[in-house]
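Researcher: Structure prediction, please.
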Amino acid sequence: MRKRKDFVRLEGVRSARLVVIASEGRCTESIYFSAVKDRLRAPNVHVEILARDSNESSPESVHAQIADFMRQYNIDDDDELWLVIDRDRWHERMLSQVAQLCAQNPHLNFCMSNPCFELWLLLHLEDIREYDEVTSNELALNRKNKAGVTWLKKRMRDLLGSYSESSYDAVRLLPHAPKAMSIARELDENPADRWPQNVGSRVYLLMESIIGNNLKQTVGHYCWKCGQYLSNEKFSGKGYARHICKKCMAEERAHRRQILKEKRERGEIPELKLKPVSPEIIDYVENEIIPRYVAFDKAHQESHVRMVIEQSIKLAEHSPAMNSDMVYIIAAFHDLGLVNGRENHHKDSRTILEADEFVRSHFTSKQIVTMGHAVEDHRASNQKKPRNGYGMIVAEADRLIEADTIIRRTIQYGLANYPKLDKAGHYQRTIEHLNEKYGPKGYLKIWIPWSDNAKNLKKLHVLLTDKKKLEEIFNRIFDEENE
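Model: Predicted structure follows.
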């Protein structure tokens, strides 16, 4: 009789427990457990997935493959060998025989999914306990449609967008493994039975053996775009649901914009343009709103509000669905609250806008609320994202990031509010303000990542490290403001 050999286990792990998996399918189970092995396996577990070397896929042939492995290798006391079987078309007599053979060997485990392994995959994506009676019956029968595709395969395609037995993204499912295990455990109403008599899967037991206590530390949240497990902070609300991190979402949006731009340039789609601002809106702002800025400090004079209006319209041109009249009014009103002081000017500006008779007669109540939110959310110190797109536009337009302009406005504000400071004091205050607001750790947020502001902010970060050049700019502008 040939002597059994030791199985070569994980390097660097003295007592790695062996988990051997043999399954009916040649691809589906192997793809899934290979992903589990690579990403979720506990550090002291060695997972070995036996490849199918023939087209024979009966439970008996799976047991024979496991038995052959046991004849070749020494099996330690804590090693486990798993037969992953589908219930679907096999006779109960055959299943009983194989289950009995497993029961007679302490290392063997009979792991069945009813009706098939794809049920286990589905549990990652849906809670089948919420199915109505008709859908539950369709799942249990798992019949083929006219195209020869079973109900479960079709359902997986509907949920994943693309699925076949030999090609699917198992890694995308792994973040939901805890949910699948929980549902499968609850579906297993009679764990003492040799296999689930109703719809269910015992794969959760195999997963518990492979993962151990490693699950929470390893899973994280998966981004299927970049293929990484990342912390929750790396995902927005929509991105979390879609499994796309913030960075990949931004790249996706930029890619879509580039495609649209190229199509417009080729004439494949008509150029969309922002509707011109109504003449009566322009007249009202010119005659009634802009003149109010004369009473404010040098940093918030007529030139500032005109710049914000111009930049707002420029940004809105990238979103032709925007209401240009609303964009114009928001930009014009955004700093009117300075009449009551700077501290709460963003809130006061909203109050002024919402109470304005001209605004109330030209816009709906819903539009006025939207504009009010936008005006209130524009302030640079606001750490929360504006509540709507109009708020993002005016906030971005109000943050014209150009070194000379920013330094000049800082000096102007300092001269108006800190008259006792000497030149050195104003320089120190200017540097502190620039770093506090615009520095790499500054509180200013860029809400439109493709805007000129995003590019210019990076340039300003570089300037803040060049003390000599920064001092030259300050001295020039300070002297100009004091002439």
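Model: The chain has a mean pLDDT of 86.
Researcher: Thanks, that helps.
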